[in-house]
Amino acid sequence: MVYNTPTSVVTIDRFIIEQERLHPEATGELSGILYDLALAAKIISSKVRRAGLVDILGSAEAENVQGEMQQKLDVFANETIVKALDHGGRLCAMASEEVPDIIPIPDGFRCGKYCLLFDPLDGSSNIDVNVPVGTVFSVVRKITRGARGELEDMLQPGRRQVAAGYVIYGSSTMLVYTTGQGVHGFTLDPSIGEFLLSHPNIRIPDPGRYLSVNDSYEQHWDEPVKALMRRYRGLDGERKAMSVRYVGSLVADFHRNLLGGGIFCYPANVKSPQGKLRLLYEANPLAFVVEQAGGAATDGTRRILDIHPTELHQRIPLYVGSKSDVDTASAMLGGEKLTGVGA
Ligand code: P6P
Fold first, then answer.
1. Where does the chain show beta strands of DSSP type E?
2. CATH top class, domain 12-199
3. 135 — phi, psi (to 5°)?
4. Which pLDDT score, from 0 to 100, does residue 50 have?
5. Other CB atoms closer than 10 Å to residue 86's CB: what's the count?
6. Where in the chain is the domain with CATH 3.40.190.80?
7. Whose CA is nearest to atom 1 of ligand 1?
């Protein structure tokens, strides 16, 4: 991994403004969405970091409260994002993993030209064992007539995204995003409450070092998937074995592979015939990020960003990471050769 080490302290707000200046036609609405997402991330980070203190704080029935606390953290994260973004006048609707239907902009607030889709706190069950969790987000333009967002605005192929990224609440809190001008990472300095540019122009190493897959499902995979995993493990003599790293938290596994090179795989299996992960607010945003970092993403047969969604919470098999490793998946699973738009 090679970054242009920043020579000065660049806050995310300053970076967003500088990126906006690259687009004379920009109105600042997309920048406003990114500011508001960064604010929501700081608030969620503060709460997630204290989740482990529930027991120490002497709350009665720690087990129950801890369990309840986790569940509440999903709801808290969802409400934090909705409240941070529902009144800025930049969005016409939102969609959340936590909410069955689209979330309208409240009456009395102006509607904007963008839609936000997000998973507010993916992997929250990992919080009580201190495994990193994350927020994943995707922004698309409104395509329907009228002021208010509709389901059709949400059901756009991932190639129509104008921004996407994630926040990882790990050993540090990082916000990683793209607007189609490369991928940039910002680390939260809690002492000043600012996201500072720490990883400019992230490029995913290729070929990758890491294989992330839950092979407890191996018995449920079809033969091509089993052969693919044998290939990644170097068992068929066709390539060097990859190191297996899987923490069961999508954002954590994806982020490690983005920086270190590798592939995250969640194949379809008997339990989850369409895979487990969600297309609109997990696969699509991570696919946009990884392509902008020089990687690729497929469901095994199609480029993720070309898939036309049919349902808000639809699931999809996912192979995402270093391009040559994803191309191996496409070749062995009968998929299209991926060209992607990686910068
Ligand atoms: P499994 C967490 O529940 C999650 O949605 C993702 O963050 C993670 O990648 C996946 O599920 C793990 O699923 O079936 O391996 O436990």
1. 91-96, 103-104, 114-122, 133-141, 161-169, 173-178, 183-189, 194-199, 210-212, 243-244, 262-266, 296-298, 318-321
2. alpha beta
3. -110, 135
4. 83
5. 18
6. 210-333
7. 248
Structure confidence at residue 342 (pLDDT): 46
Indicate whether residue 28 lines ligand 1 (CB < 6 A).
no
As beta bridge partners, residue 284 has none
- 250 in ligand 1 pocket by Cβ < 6 Å? yes
Whether the CB of 276 sits within 6 Å of ligand 1: yes
Q: What is the pLDDT of residue 243?
A: 98
Specify the pLDDT at position 59: 39
CATH 3.30.540.10-classified regions of the chain: 12-199
For residue 90, report the distance from its CA to the centre of ligand 1, in Å: 32
Please tell me if the CB atom of residue 314 comes closer than 6 angstroms to any atom of ligand 1.
Answer: no
Q: Please give the distance, rounded to the nearest whole angstrom, from the Cα atom of residue 135 to the centre of ligand 1.
A: 14
Q: What is the pLDDT of residue 343?
A: 38
Round to whole Å and give the CA distance between 81 and 78: 5
CA 248 – ligand 1 centroid, Å = 5
Q: Return the pLDDT at 61.
A: 46
What is the residue with the minimal CA distance to atom 9 of ligand 1?
250
pLDDT in tens, 272-300: 899 999 999 999 999 999 999 999 999 99
Ranges of the chain with pLDDT below 50: 1-3, 56-62, 342-343
What is the number of the ligand 1 atom nearest to the C-alpha of 133?
A: 7
Centroid of ligand 1 to alpha carbon of 276 (angstroms): 7
Is the C-beta atom of 267 inside 6 A of ligand 1? Answer: no
Residue 244, helix vs strand vs coil: strand
Q: Which residues contact 266 (CB under 8 A, 6 or more apart)?
A: 213, 214, 275, 276, 277, 317, 318
Q: Report CA(108)–ligand 1 centroid distance (Å).
A: 38
CATH topology of domain 210-333: D-Maltodextrin-Binding Protein; domain 2 (3.40.190)
Kindly report, residue by residue over 58-100, the tens digit of the pLDDT. Answer: 334 445 555 555 568 888 999 999 999 999 999 999 999 999 9
User: DSSP characters for 104-121?
Assistant: EPPTTSPP-SEEEEEEEE
